Amino acid sequence: MDIIIVLDFGGQYAHLITRRIRDLGVFSEILPFDVNLEKLKKKNPKAIILSGGPGSVYDKNDPKLDQEFFQFTTEKKIPVLGICYGHHLIMHLLGGKVESKETKEYGRSNLIILEPNLLFDSLEKEQIVWMSHGDQITKIADGFKEYAKTDTCPVAAYGNQEKLLYGIQFHPEVSNTPNGNKILENFIFKIANCKKEWKLKGWIDRSVQEIRREIGPDNKVILGLSGGVDSSVTAVLLHKAIGDRLHCIFVNNGVLRKNEENEVQQTFREKLKFKNFHYVDAEDLFLKKLINIEDPEEKRRIIGHTFIEVFETKTLDLEKVYPDIKYLAQGTIYPDRVETSTTSKVSAKIKSHHNITLPDNMKLKVIEPLRDLYKDEVRKVGLELGLPNYIINRHPFPGPGLAVRIIGPIDKEKLTILRNADEILIEEIRKAGIYDKIWQAFCVFLPLKTVGIMGDYRTYEYICSIRIVESMDAMTANFSKLDWDLLERIGTRIVNEVKGINRTVYDISNKPPSTIEYE
Ligand code: XMP
User: Fold this and answer.
1) How far is CA 381 from the centre of its chain?
2) Which of 231, 444, 467, 517 to mutate for ligand 1's pocket (most ligand atoms within 8 Å of CB)?
3) Candidates 2.40.128.270, 3.40.50.150, 3.40.47.10, 3.40.50.880; correct CATH number of 3-191?
4) Most exposed residue of 118, 119, 201, 217, measured as fewest CB within 10 angstroms of its CB?
């Protein structure tokens, strides 16, 4: 299958480029800019894209490429497209000149295409593009042609057809460049002649074959299933491949949402006919360990460690009955593990569904069938494999669950109050048809009592904070500017229907500086 490699120069856009290329039907992966050339060669790329990045090419310490890189791409006739920093870098290394500009250029620009060329094929002469740079090319290298300019940027795009080197100053991968996809399409299909082979249906079939080959005809697999998207899709994929040789362990850690344990069991046991779905009720153990624990990090640590303890014990029990359990499956997805120049130091960690590293001494081989997929690809695979919509489009839920949505020590009474309030919130959000449009909606229990009045009685009860945020990736988030009537309905219902709460507040903080969760 054709593959396009995106070399990451530390920009925030490398994943976005890869995603766009996959959406266009060609497989794409990210490698750090300083990847060993031999490793790059082994990938046999059909084309290479150099991403943007925060550096300046004339700064000695900023990332560069060796001349061998260009020897390799020219020799093998592999087209290279530099974007922003990548655009500067090609020029800088091959004889052009890049200089710092007095006025930086950020935002919309009007691009004027100077002569017909494949990169801008079938585009109008003038294009809106998104710029974000402080440097620009002041002299173009021999053998290169200027393809486009803007009012303030004389070399906004260039090409060298003989060496198959291209550069664009703007970002085609962002939606603010309306025809950005067309430019990427031209590059991958008209210049690099890639074939459209990346289709999820085909991926599922291949992946099923691969899993069967790896696991063999007899071995069994264990999976920690949380009911979140990643572990659920891992489960259905493995189930398709090896059927009931998949053993799922679902741990009730006592801090789940209302009815969650039943819903997940019903989905997998009854709807999807999983025979080896093992439910472990560890509520009492978790809650006992969490008594009087106030510090958020301590809560997280206890929940993480207890999860491992429970999971390990259950696995050992199962191994006694099923000695063929040889594999541990994990719902790791591409962004969790990919090595990019910004994340390489922390990448490649093994995650469980609670983002915890499971101990090596479990002596199981790890299998991560979703390791190459992005989240929305994972969702599509799940839908294709029959997972219900409510699991596929679920809002993210932290591993430590409601424990980090109750400020201070937790107990059963507070958990019940929070579950009841949260249920109303989600019900109203779904009724209003906005569940799928927002990133997360949840309630937080504030352990503060205030005075209220109900009928003729004075009340003295807790406060519930309502948190609803919109976000693309959880790195930043804005509170949702909800309709007042809807908010009023939610608040009124919670106070009227949930015993223990007599006041609700709406959280109007954005991230940063606040976080989405409270602890
Ligand atoms: P914050 O609160 O840092 O959250 O703005 C960012 C996103 O991550 C989720 N979150 C977690 N997810 N384990 C998880 O799997 C955790 O421990 C955890 N803590 C926060 C949070 O819900 C939000 O979507």
Assistant:
1) 15
2) 517
3) 3.40.50.880
4) 217
Domain 200-392 has CATH 3.40.50.620: yes
R_g over Cα of the chain: 27
Query: Do 3-191 and 200-392 fold alike per CATH?
Result: yes
Specify burial of residue 392 (Cβ count, 10 A radius: 0-12, 13-18, 19+).
Answer: middle
The CATH number that domain 411-506 falls under is 3.30.300.10
Query: Ligand 1 centroid to 255 CA: how many Å?
Result: 15
Structural domain boundaries in the chain: 3-191, 200-392, 411-506
The question of whether 133 is a catalytic residue gets the answer no
> Average pLDDT, stretch 390-402?
94
Ligand 1 pocket check for 519: Cβ under 6 Å: no
Q: Residue 350: which pLDDT band, with cuts at 50, 70 and 90?
A: very low
Atom 15 of ligand 1, nearest CA residue: 398
CA distance 114 to 116: 7
Least confident of 197-206, 232-241, 402-411, 426-435: 197-206
Phi then psi for residue 69, to 5 deg, are -60, -45
